[in-house]
Amino acid sequence: HPHCEKCYNQHCKIPIDISNSCAFISCRLNCGAAFHLCKEDEHRLLCPKETVPCLNSGYGCPMTMTRQRLAKHLEVCPASVITCTLEWNRWPVNEADTAFYRNALQDPNYMSQMDLAMALRDQKLLFSSIQMKTLFPELIEKTEEPEVPLDGAVGGVDPECWESLNLNPEEMLENSLNGEEVQELTQEERLALAKSKDVACLENYGMWERMFVKEKEGCKQTVKNLEDKSCSTKDKEDPRVTPQNSHDDIAITGLAPWQDGVLDRLGKEVNVAEYNMYLVRNGCMLINFGQLAACTPKEKDFVYGNLEPIEVQTVHSFNLPKSYRAKRSHLKDPSQIVKKTHQNVDTSDLGIAIEELPKANEAEATLLCALERELKGHQICETVGTDGLYVDIGTQTYDFHSAPFNSDASLADVVEDQPQNLHVQIQTECVTRRHNKSCSAFTYLCCHAFRRDEYPWHFRNVHGDIQSCLTGWFLQRCPLAYLGCTFSQKQFRPSKYQATVSYDTDLSTFILQPEVTASLYKGVRIANSDRKRARNLDSLSRLPFEILQHIVSFLDSVSLGCLSQVSQLMREVCSTVLQQKGMVYLKWEKKTYSHGGFTWRARKKAWEFSSLFSPVDKWVFDDMPPMAEHLKVCPFYQKEIRSEPVALPSMTDLQERRGEFQTLVNSVLTTVKAHRE
């Protein structure tokens, strides 16, 4: 109403008028707002007590609540998921430290060592990401292309027209220059060719077909419009006009690539930009129809006229400092350049047969080439120009036991059957991409997903407390580890309960394992009479469903995820706390259409628990013996006992120093005496 639109008085007492105003009411949900009746629908969009779905309902959250609780709910919303993007780097193993890594993997319980287990997980991800064909294309197994049968047609197409089916743009251009006419396919042949899987260059055909089908349809539409326009004009001027005359006029006025004089008409009717765009889009068709020459004739080449030389002036706007020294590779004085000779070097110069040459290690050589490419942007065996004058030519080949490799083989597939070795260091460096870091280190990402209220504790406990202090502080190793000793001990535990930190290879993260006393395992055994039943339940599963719900309410996310995989009953129990402790996200799938296009759509909603363990606010030292107790029995600690006295370096020339000191004292006394006189 006119009055209600401008009325903001909370105590409006204007009489009701159907044409001007309506009744003045209060909010039905008792939020305290008062307004005219016609504004009730607008108020429901802002009322704090209106029941609305969560803001993340489109991402899977099923919760509904009053509008005033939306902000508080977002802190614990199961659809508000955060992915951890922390990065850390690992250097390759130094050749001097191979003794420790070799001995560490021989220990049967090496996976219980957190730093070693995490390094093996990172190495597995690294090996899976390195493709052999990108580093060693010459060692990839060559696959033979399927031969086209000559005794019949494939897919309904005659074998004699295979050359015309291979729509290579260079060959089409060459055929048009030689005057050869490219055979056009019928609609049936195109459909048969599209369904056939044995046609060579099928990808090229599909690309060119999609490219020209739009141009062909556009040309047909242009011709149709011109025909309609020409026919209507001719009918008005002279109704005795014949169809032949109409087609002649279309050939003179049309803009299709196959019509005569199309370029001349375009030059007069459109601007330069549209003319050039027409040449770009229809250049191949113009060449095929003879409207455009494929190359410029010699007589039309541009010839320079009288050219006057221009004086070149060099302006020195920067003076080199006196401390500057040019590098050898950038010296421009030919007399100061080291002379080089071209000489071919081959393995035959070694005097060893090719079969007797040592084989390279797949993992070490591949990591070396990967680092070389990342550091310098090229491989070791590539030819690279150092500047505009000189080119470094180097050839280095590798010979592996497992060569040749499959086209889709990764480094993990190559070393799968080989003994397990560690090629990256157990120490990590946390340097993000926002800082300059060395390219000779491999980078890893955390990539674990958490609820918004869980992420701060994950970053603090896992990355801040454990991972950053893992080497030398959280996990203490023997000081003689560089000699090969693999002894280690964990120094910290949570302050409120007894638990040990370990690395879970299945979850790829650190977890807390509580230390359960032996008394809690009493009574867990099942009676013999119960074992004969079809449904054999343990003592925990026999509890009522409500009690099980109460028990799982005290568990953390990683424990709930593990418990849900024990049995169907435990999975149903854990699903009751999904909205309180779980998280939901959309599962996307790629849908490809028949015309070649594709799109992504959400297929379903997936619920799961994160890998967060119980938050630890404080860590304390665990009760363990000092490292000195281990050194007493360490096999790498070799004592060297000496019984004969050894002179210190300061005692070797003691007599000489006494004589020099006496001479110095005498000279000082003589100087003082002369000064007094």
From TrEMBL:
Organism domain of life: Eukaryota
Keyword annotations of the record: Metal-binding, Ubl conjugation pathway, Zinc, Zinc-finger
InterPro entries: F-box-like_dom_sf, F-box_dom, Fbxo30/Fbxo40, Znf_RING/FYVE/PHD, Znf_TRAF, Znf_TRAF_N
Residues in F-box domain copies: 537-591
Region (Disordered): 228-247
Keyword Glycosyltransferase on entry: no
GO molecular function: ubiquitin protein ligase activity; zinc ion binding
Zinc finger regions, TRAF-type: 43-86
Entry GO CC: cytoplasm
Domain annotation TRAF-type: ranges: 43-86
Entries under Pfam families matching the protein: F-box_4 (PF15966), zf-TRAF_2 (PF15965)
Stored SUPFAM superfamilies: F-box domain (SSF81383), TRAF domain-like (SSF49599)
Protein's name according to its UniProt entry: F-box only protein 40
Species this chain originates from: Anabarilius grahami (Kanglang fish)
